[in-house]
Specification:
- The protein is of the alpha+beta class and 642 residues long.
- The protein has a domain at 200-264 and 331-342 and 365-377 and 400-640: Rossmann fold, CATH 3.40.50.
- It has 13 helices and 35 strands.
- The strands form 10 sheets. Strands 16, 17, 18, 19, 21, 22, 23 and 29 form an 8-stranded mixed β-sheet that branches. Strands 15, 24, 25, 26, 33 and 34 form a 6-stranded mixed β-sheet that branches. Strands 6-7-5-11 form a 4-stranded antiparallel β-sheet, with helices on both faces.
- Helix 7 (322-336) runs parallel beside helix 11 and helix 8 (353-364) runs parallel beside helix 9.
- InterPro entries: Peptidase_S8/S53_dom, Peptidase_S8/S53_dom_sf, Peptidase_S8_Ser-AS, S53_propep, Sedolisin_dom, Tripeptidyl-peptidase_I.
- Residues 198-217 are annotated as: Disordered.
- It comes from Longimycelium tulufanense.
Length: 642
């Protein structure tokens, strides 16, 4: 197991400061001969996977790379304290939000700092592309030899599993007069290649064309237990075993959360971030809407803000798989809030551009809720990346933006297809975002909820007429909501008294709230996929849960006449055990399927029974806060009441 970064992020109300303190690697001299006296190293600027024993050679000096130089907030401690105060019910500053312009004037990097960074990069021969509206990111491109000169380190290739990734050989070195004013340099290493969407596709076959009958293979159930294969052993009582579902429709999803026709999210705007864009996203959503009985998108109701290289025809975007994620995010928001406007912020699959997309959403400040269905598939996220991320979400909280992150789909991440040890995902583990976990829901023919339990799936295979746990690299685990205890952040004050100190041991616990995620129930979405054309397919994962919560927030804001709710966690934990949140506990239930994906996404066929919330690793739902569903899942009262 590789060594982990241990750092703390303390959230304190009263003397409320979010301290971001980290241990960095030993100082190393640059390898390219640029050992000038006016340079200082940036601790925490090299990824832990870039070990000397894994080095596979140097990077071609003439190859091009794009980097993002992140600038630190001014008066960071004050900005972080204010972020908590405006987000905490009962605080004199509660919901006294700043505009983007007010935040930048008060806390953003000043123009003098931007000019000095621009001069430094240009003198090294780099082309400065631009500066973000909030002055947080300065983007530049150049040849590797120029980047090595600018940042005082060599770039090398390192073996990472089956891949080869680029990273600095030693800590980045910056001009001494910029110490404390540059928080990170994104794009020098290939950490961005480890960012994945949190979508889990159902193993069921897709249905082609506008006249397809459902969304999956013929033996799937349109609602819980509509079909149940009685030719296989019945492990669960009557009504608790079903064939795999075809994916819930928009109407069924609204029934799960008790939404009436008047809850539409009208007048509210939801932001979504991801990588690349699907060329047919809008037309696919309109085709899906017709199938779901929803009106088409109004002109201008959906729009895109794309970073350079994020276009659908960009070379690195072709076949990236992010298009299905985009379709899921848009359509799940529409299911919950069909009249809400949607803005998709797309980053390119390079240089941390998905962080750039999120920063754009925050800097523009047009979307009071931003759903993010992605995360790092690497536990050792460099400290500088965490620091610059904290600056971004601190701005969002001050502006009243709610930042949601999917908690992940690999359970506690202890399986070999994930981290190999128990730890939650980043950025979901950040105490300044709302981590959205996952549930499994059985909805009957009358649109009544039969049960809600956690999403932690295991699988049995039919052998000699009996069910036996499957044997794979991850044991019988085949997917579940991410959760657990962060080694990187201390327990925020809003979790105290709700999350068991015996469980969390004084650390940040994940997730905070939850919604439908189980891919064996899932949601039926529509998208264009070669060579089939337009298809309907059931999809799940916490990639579904996060935008569902976003849509419910739009409904709540509409119903209550509120424009922004801000950083949600202090309010969510104040709402613990209130009628607006249903406590999710374990229920025995399962589905039969003839097709199944293992935890590593390998498709297998046969006769399988998928057990819900069966604790295949260390996670399971339970009374009170739990590491699968957080404090619970929204009820009708979440939108209409309290």
């Amino acid at each position: 197991m590789a060594a982990r970064w241990f750092r703390t992020a303390r959230l304190i109300v009263g003397c409320m400061v979010l301290a971001l303190v980290g241990a960095g690697p030993a100082v190393a001299q640059p390898t390219n001969g640029d050992a000038v006296n006016d340079r200082v190293p940036m601790p925490g600027s090299t990824p832990q996977w870039a070990r000397p024993d894994l080095k596979a050679g140097r990077v071609s000096p003439g190859s091009q790379r794009r980097v993002l130089v992140a600038l630190s907030l001014r008066n960071r401690a004050e900005a972080q304290q204010r972020a908590i105060e405006v987000s905490t019910p009962g605080s004199p500053r509660y919901r006294h939000f700043l505009t983007a312009e007010q935040f930048v004037d008060r806390f953003g990097p000043d123009q003098h700092t931007v000019d000095r960074v621009r001069t430094w990069l240009q003198e090294a021969g780099l082309h400065v592309e631009g500066v973000s509206a909030n002055r947080h990111l300065v983007t530049a491109t150049g040849r590797v030899e120029q980047l090595e000169r600018a940042f005082g380190t060599g770039l090398a290739r390192y073996r990472y599993g089956k891949d080869v990734l680029v990273a600095p050989e030693s800590p980045v070195r910056i001009p001494a007069d910029l110490r404390g004013e540059v928080s990170a340099v994104l794009g020098l290493d290939d950490s961005h290649r480890l960012i994945r969407s949190r979508l889990v596709r159902s193993p069921q076959q897709t249905t082609q064309g506008p006249e397809g009958s459902g969304g999956a293979e013929e033996d799937c159930a349109e609602y819980w237990a509509q079909h149940n294969n009685t030719a296989v052993p019945q492990k669960y009582p009557e009504g608790r075993q079903s064939n795999v579902l075809c994916g819930y429709t928009a109407n069924q999803l609204r029934a799960i959360y008790g939404l009436g026709q008047e809850a539409t999210g009208a007048g509210r705007t939801i932001g979504i971030t991801g990588e690349c864009t699907l060329a047919t996203a809008e037309s696919d959503t309109n085709r899906w809407s017709r199938r779901m009985g929803l009106p088409p998108l109004r002109p201008g109701q959906y729009r895109e803000v794309l970073q350079p290289g994020a276009a659908a025809d960009a070379p690195e975007c072709r076949g990236s798989g992010w298009g299905v994620e985009q379709a899921l995010d848009i359509q799940s928001v529409r299911a919950m809030a069909p009249d809400a406007d949607i803005v998709y912020y797309g980053g390119a699959p390079e240089s941390g551009s998905v962080f750039e997309a999120l920063n754009t959403a925050i800097a523009q400040n047009e979307t009071p809720v931003i759903s993010n269905s992605w995360g790092e598939d690497e536990p050792e996220v460099p400290t500088d990346v965490r620091t610059q991320f904290a600056d971004m979400v601190t701005q969002a909280a001050n502006q009243g933006q709610s930042i949601l992150f999917s908690s992940g789909d690999s359970g506690d991440n202890s399986g070999p297809s994930a981290f190999g040890f128990a730890a939650p995902d980043f950025p979901a583990e950040s105490p300044m975002v709302t981590a959205v976990g996952g549930t499994s829901v059985g909805l009957d023919a009358q649109n009544r909820v039969e049960f809600t339990t956690g999403w932690e799936n295991s699988a049995d295979q039919l052998q000699d007429g009996q069910w036996a746990p499957i044997q794979s690299a991850d044991g019988d685990f085949i997917g579940g909501a991410g959760g657990g205890v962060s080694p990187n952040y201390s327990m925020p004050i809003y979790q105290r008294g709700v999350v068991s100190t015996r469980y969390a041991r004084g650390q940040r616990a994940v997730p905070d709230i939850s919604a439908l995620a189980n891919n064996f129930t899932g949601m039926r979405i529509g998208f264009t996929q070669a060579p089939h054309g337009f298809v309907l397919e059931p999809v799940g994962g916490t990639s579904l849960a996060s935008p569902l919560i976003a849509g419910l927030l739009a409904d709540r804001m509409q119903v209550h006449g509120v424009q922004r709710m801000g950083f949600l966690n202090p309010w969510i934990y104040r709402s613990y055990r209130s009628p607006g949140l249903a406590d999710v506990t374990h229920h025995d239930a399962g589905v039969w399927t003839s097709r199944m994906h293992l935890a590593d996404r390998t498709l297998v066929t046969g006769s399988y029974l998928v057990d819900f919330d069966s604790k295949p690793q260390s996670l399971q739902s339970m009374p009170g806060w739990d590491p699968v569903t957080g404090v619970g899942t929204p009820t009708r009262t979440f939108v209409y009441g309290y």
